[in-house]
């Protein structure tokens, strides 16, 4: 089975080099090329490749946007992002756009060929380090969206009681916990929320309640 490949790169020398490299393989065929995002978006649906090798940085946009747009029309298309930069932000955006792989232009020719075959077969091509970066970013975004997501149920309950103005001893009596245990919980939740004082926690709880009241009113 021949793998049909489309190339998008604004550098003609790079594009021709990659095309020559891939076409030297008996199972790979270059079915189209583009130097701009607009040209790629217009051409790719017409030639219907199996794999699109997309440069991340383009004069009129970026390969991530092309990936997102084209995959909305051709969900079965495997997009392999090719860039000169080890850019964590671009990696995250590419994966969220549905890219099957992400490689640097410094990659060896044989490895690029292997990468094209890998994504063409339906597999993902993300090395463990890149995957770890992506998961870290996802966790960071989730934490920014919901600061309480890192807290356990017990820590959330204790935070609410701090917001009510209770001391560690009073919280312990309410939850049937030793005062020292409560102190440990408080220390942990302060670390997770990057706080130092109970007044910060109380103000934070008040803000959360106010935000909840506003959302209910809306």
Automatic annotation (TrEMBL):
It comes from the Bacteria. SMART domains: HTH_LUXR (SM00421), REC (SM00448). Residues 144-209 form the HTH luxR-type domain. The modification 4-aspartylphosphate is found at residue 55. One of its GO terms (molecular function) is DNA binding. It holds the Pfam family Response_reg. Residues 4-120 form the Response regulatory domain. One of its GO terms (biological process) is phosphorelay signal transduction system. Keywords: DNA-binding, Phosphoprotein, Transcription, Transcription regulation. CDD domains: LuxR_C_like, REC_NarL-like. InterPro entries: CheY-like_superfamily, NreC/VraR/RcsB-like_REC, Sig_transdc_resp-reg_C-effctor, Sig_transdc_resp-reg_receiver, Tscrpt_reg_LuxR_C, WalR-like. This is DNA-binding response regulator.
């Amino acid at each position: 089975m021949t793998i049909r490949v489309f190339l998008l790169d604004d550098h003609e020398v790079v594009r021709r080099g990659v095309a020559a490299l891939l076409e030297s393989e008996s199972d790979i065929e270059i079915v189209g090329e583009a130097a701009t995002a607009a040209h790629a978006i217009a051409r790719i649906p017409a030639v219907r490749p199996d794999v699109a090798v997309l440069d991340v940085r383009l004069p009129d946009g970026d390969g991530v946007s092309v990936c997102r747009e084209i995959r909305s029309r051709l969900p079965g298309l495997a997009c392999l992002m090719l860039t000169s930069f080890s850019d964590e932000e671009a990696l995250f955006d590419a994966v969220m756009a549905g890219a099957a792989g992400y490689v640097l232009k410094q990659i060896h020719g044989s490895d690029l060929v292997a990468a094209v075959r890998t994504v063409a077969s339906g597999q993902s091509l993300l090395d463990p380090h890149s995957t770890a970066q992506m998961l870290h970013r996802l966790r960071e975004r989730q934490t920014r969206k919901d600061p309480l997501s890192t807290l356990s149920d017990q820590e959330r309950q204790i935070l609410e009681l701090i917001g009510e103005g209770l001391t560690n001893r009073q919280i312990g009596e309410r939850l049937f916990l030793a005062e020292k245990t409560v102190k440990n919980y408080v220390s942990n939740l302060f670390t997770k929320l990057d706080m130092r004082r109970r007044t910060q926690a109380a103000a934070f709880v008040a803000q959360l309640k106010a935000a909840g009241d506003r959302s209910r009113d809306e």
